[in-house]
Amino acid sequence: MLSALHAWVAFCQVWQCDVVLWGKGGGRPSNKVVLEAEWKLLLFCVWLHNSGYAAATCSGYVGSVKSWHGKITGLPAQAVGVVFYRLPMLFRTLKKLNPAKLRDKRPWEFSYSLAVLEGWKQNGELSFAKDKDPYLMMVAWEVIKLAFEQLMRLAELVTTKPASVSMRNPLKWCDVTYEDAQGEVLGYDERGRPMGCPVRARLREPPSKMRGGGGELILPFPAGWCPGMETLASGPGLFMMQTQHPVPRDWAKKVPLLGMTEWSADRRFVVQISQQKFMTAMHRLCNGAVPVVRYDSKEGKLGLHAWRVGGTNRLFDLGASAPQVCAAGRWMGDCWVLYARRQRAVLEELTVRMSQKEGLKDSPW
User: Fold this and answer.
1) What is the residue-wise DSSP string for 156-179?
2) CA distance 213 to 205
3) If you compute the radius of gyration of the chain from its CA atoms, what whole number of angstroms results?
4) Do residues 241 and 138 touch, judged by C-beta distance below 8 A?
5) pTM listed for this prediction
6) Residue 139 to residues 66, 274, 281, 303, 322, Cα–Cα distance (Å)
């Protein structure tokens, strides 16, 4: 419901209307008030649809707003005999225009990251120098590692076409700190480069559709890590990015951590990387991987949740428990179950093996 209310407040701000549908005067609303309320909900639903939300999400958000309204006013629609006849018609129309996607969310596999790391090596070290825009490639690679490791939605790290909650307060260069083995926070030099040899990084949790943010993400460094050592961990990647392309601390609160272009004294105002630019860079990363990663195949495309799904599966592969996965992905309910799945071919293989005797230890059968 929280994400629906965020959208509802944004809609009311854009159209300069009251968030409350009726109930200020008490008692049953008049026909005129009911008609105005229905028009607002119809416009809200169309506004969501035009912003890129699925038909099911649009209808769900409208239902959440109605439920919220009934709770705060004490006058739910059913209790005062209010019925909206045109909303169901609009829901059916939107479902025809934008039918539900039945395919599974395809995960970004850990093997894909290994393939990218192998394919973009030069003289034994990872390098994007051969690309026409090496900085963009480096940022896209950090987005992938961070989203996979921290089970994040892509919308929390890049600017997406349908506006996301995280776009209100994107990550900035000031939002990451580094600590040594004693837990002391490391400083920056006069150019804005982090100093010392950290063992972990702390990153502000960006707001998402289910959480308001404000927490911390812990990014551990591999044991024995030192500057120059390539790793798939996101913390060392951010450390190296800030070392090689520093931003003065005076600008740390203004410059996006995952920017579209490199900051410089001549180009100080940088915007957050967009979904289009990220996807373009991600495709180039996949094409240069060894073996090549097929980002668009018969199994589906790699979408906005590919890394969140892949990271969830990776944790289960490593033997993590359900509560641990739920905590890692910052899920507040049981919807994480939708992400804990594999591709259908793997599930079919497991189903076949369930009825076979091979591999069963100490079985009485």
Assistant:
1) GTSB-SS--GGGGS--BGGGEEEE
2) 5
3) 24
4) yes
5) 0.70
6) 41, 11, 9, 18, 31
Per-residue pLDDT tens digits for 208-230: 765 656 688 999 999 888 887 88
Compute the distance between CA of residue 170 and CA of residue 27 in angstroms, rounded to an integer: 43
- The number of helices, as runs of H, and strands, as runs of E, in the chain is 11, 7
- The number of residues making up the chain comes to 365
Beta strands in the chain (DSSP E): 121-122, 125-126, 176-179, 200-204, 216-220, 296-297, 300-301
Q: What is the spatial distance between Cα 203 and Cα 149, in angstroms, rounded to a whole number?
A: 13
Does 291 sit behind a cis peptide bond, omega within 30 degrees of 0 on the bond before it? yes
Give pLDDT tens digits for 108-149: 999 999 999 999 998 888 899 889 999 999 999 999 999 999
Angle at 356 between CA 351 and CA 358, to 5 degrees: 120
Q: Residue 163 sits in which domain range? A: 126-287
Are 142 and 223 members of one domain?
Answer: yes
pLDDT in tens, 239-289: 999 999 999 999 999 999 999 999 998 888 899 999 999 999 999 999 999
Torsion of CA 180, 182, 184, 190, to 10 degrees: -40
How many folded domains does the chain comprise? 2
- Reading the block at residue 249, the tokens are 């601390």
Residues 166 and 257 in one domain: yes
